[in-house]
Amino acid sequence: MKTAQMSLLTLVIFLVLGITLYLISPANQKEQPESWSSFVYTQGYESGRYKKLDDFNDYASCRAYSIETSEKFEQAPWECGLRCRFDSSRQGFQCEAMENK
Fold first, then answer.
1. SS3 call for 9
2. pTM over 0.70
3. Which stretches within 26-101 are classed as H helix?
4. Which of 66, 20, 73 is nearest to 43 (CA)?
5. What is residue 58's DSSP assignment?
């Protein structure tokens, strides 16, 4: 009888673990809306100083703003980042994608 109870308990534990892993898998997480951020490096890439503006709805509007701002700072380098967030362990912003086209 004890073997049956232990087998049932083990089965329940693995079932709960499997359901939990399924529910937290990346495929089941809701997609965040597309949000672009502009980074204009006013003193070059290596300086770490930049002007940042968030919440562009698409790459084209982020690009237009970045180019306009870049011209104010003597053609400073710029990039647009998709879904950027601050990463405290790296002390900087991390983006899903960065573009400069």
1. helix
2. no
3. 59-72
4. 73
5. S
Whole-number pLDDT of residue 25? 73
- Following DSSP, what letter does each residue of 2-23 receive, concatenated? HHHHHHHHHHHHHHHHHHHHHH
Listed in sequence order, the residues at least 6 apart from 95 whose beta carbon sits closer than 8 Å to its beta carbon are: 37, 81, 82, 83, 84, 85
Strand partners, 23: none
Alpha-carbon distance of 58 to 62, in angstroms, equals 7
| Residue 11 CB neighbour total at 10 angstroms | 10
User: What value does the mean pLDDT take over residues 66-86?
Assistant: 92
For residue 40, what are the contacts with CB-CB under 8 A and spacing of at least 6? 50, 51, 52, 66, 69, 70, 73, 76, 77, 78
Strands 85-87 and 78-82: unpaired
